[in-house]
Task: inverse folding
């Protein structure tokens, strides 16, 4: 069941990226004026544009992390539901971005959150949301989960 959830989330990520690539290229769509827009960006680096044009290194590191997380997820029978959910989200997001990196040479980003004249977050995608939310959930679980 864990693998099914991972595949569904990774597939949803790929579908949203496909739609973004085919509808947003060359234009921005304002969702909430001065706060949120949809815009097409090809990210050739990692989070926040770090490690630009280091495709091979990013692919290798991501693949290793995915394999380790999947192994842990599938072999550990005593994981609580929050640990499972966090690993599913992180794995699905990593797979979604890995698919882009391997097939396109870049990651498709399209969600741009900002506060006009104050704050400008880098453009991101559904896979990034999964990785960030999964990582936050994992940290909370590690810090505050009780032994049963």
Result:
């Amino acid at each position: 069941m864990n693998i099914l959830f991972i595949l569904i989330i990774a597939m949803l990520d790929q579908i949203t990226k496909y739609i973004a690539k085919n509808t947003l290229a060359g234009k921005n769509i304002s969702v909430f004026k001065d706060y949120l827009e949809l815009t097409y960006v090809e990210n050739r680096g990692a989070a926040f544009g770090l490690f630009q044009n280091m495709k091979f290194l990013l692919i290798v590191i991501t693949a290793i992390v995915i394999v380790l997380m999947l192994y842990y997820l599938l072999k550990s029978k005593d994981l609580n539901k929050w640990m499972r959910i966090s690993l599913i989200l992180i794995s699905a997001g990593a797979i979604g971005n890995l698919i882009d990196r391997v097939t396109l040479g870049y990651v498709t980003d399209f969600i741009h959150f900002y506060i006009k004249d104050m704050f400008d977050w880098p453009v991101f995608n559904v896979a990034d949301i999964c990785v960030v939310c999964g990582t936050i959930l994992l940290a909370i679980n590690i810090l505050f989960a009780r032994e049963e």
The helical segments are 2-24, 55-75, 81-104, 126-144. The two ends are 23 Å apart (CA to CA). The chain has one domain: 2-16+48-144.
